[in-house]
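Below is how a single chain appears once it has passed through the pipeline. First comes the sequence as given, then the structure the pipeline wrote out for it. We keep one example in the README because the format questions we get most often are answered faster by looking than by reading.
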Amino acid sequence: MSEPTPVADVPVPGTTPPVVEPAPGAPPTATLTTSPVPVSGAQVVLERDGYRAELAAVGATLRALTFEGRDLVVPFAADQVRPGFRGALLAPWPNRVTDGRYERDGVEHQLALNEVERGHALHGLAHWADWTFDQAQAARASASFVLVPSDGYPWRLALSVVYELGDDGLTTTVTARNVGEGTAPYGTAPHPYLVAGEGRVDDWTFDLPAASYLEVTDDRLVPVGTRPVGDREGFDFREGHAIGDLFVDHAFTDLDFGPADGATADDTSADDRSADGTSADDTWADDTSGEAQGARVTATVTARDGHGVTMSWGRELPWVQVHTADRPEPENDRVGLAVEPMTCPPDAFNSGDDLVLLAPGESHTASWTITAF
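Resulting structure:
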């Protein structure tokens, strides 16, 4: 495999970025826009086999993804402040830390509360960071960001992400490495709003092979405990059914990953959820496709015309948050279905459930793929 061609350094706003020519025989570079810097940060556009992915540096965000001109996620404009968490990467925790408070090794930590109406710390610390695009090819790009120790999260993490288009769509691979002192609690997830086709969430069918969901309180969405999906009307998506006017803002688990290629169901284990020692450089391996990741689970959203979108991921993401995007603004209300594969459930910093613990020098990698059909 040829080495990725570096993109230009992000310049000071108002200046002209230097041009980096591909080395002889190297793959063509992606489209990179850095000057003037758009509101959502430097931009990279990837294209391959009918797919087009538009990436924004702020939050390492998937700003748009289309197949043959059809939206697969709810997009937003480059010069728009990202609506909420649409398309952002979530780290070092996904979902909520209740009251923004947790304890590690006998020390109580207090995070800033960015979900003011419910009083929680929501979706980590990386979603408004200005990530740096390090390398780009026509169908592959990487970005990185160093999370520095701060009040509430006193650990240093080097975060990197690789986006790659293939004939199976867009695969995103995120790696976190503890480059500081002390063992760091960690979790991650993406936050795309999937679009099946014409209409809104109410018009689509959803299929998710999950046997359990996490019950939460109605007012603050504080976790109560896992329940069988059959205990709540409409929450059993294992055979797929129309979403209709159902409200969902819940985490699902006990996912049916199926066996890895060449393995039996007995060979697969749900224990592969801790730091795996993979280096950030390993994310540039020749094969980061879904097939290389072993056993996978797939969520499917289908429009009335039979077209739709799938999202698949591996056992390093044993939870998935699903949200029907109920919003007071008509232009944002139920326009896409949030499907957020997660390394851990809401409030894992307190419960410890499936929480990744990164010792100094350790890293953790997770990936997911969005595909049109």
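Helices lie at 348-351.

See the next section for the split statistics.
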